[in-house]
Amino acid sequence: MEFKIQQKVSKKHQLFIIDDVQKINLLPEITSDEISYITTSFNAEQILVTINRYGYFIFIYLLKNKKTDAQTSEACRKAGAELQVLCNKSKLDEITITNLSPLSNAAILFAEGIALANYQFLKYRTEAKKITNTLQRVFFTKESATVKEVSQLITIVEAIYRARTLVNEPLNYLSAEQLSKEIQLLGKEAGFKVTVLNKARLEKEKMGGLLSVNRGSIHPPTFTIMEYVPKKALNKKPIVLVGKGVVYDTGGVSLKPTLNSMDRMKSDMSGAALVSGAMFAIAKMQLPLHIIALVPATDNRPGENAYVPGDVITMYSGATVEVLNTDAEGRMILADALHWAKRYKPELVLDFATLTGAASAAVGEHGIVCMGTADEKTKQAFNDSGFRQYERLVEYPLWDEYGEQIKSDIADIKNVGGPSGGAITAGKFLEHFTNYPWMHFDIAGVSFATSRKGYTPVGGTAYGMRMLLDFLINYGKA
Question: Which of 331, 392, 414, 466 is catalytic?
Answer without folding.
Answer: 331
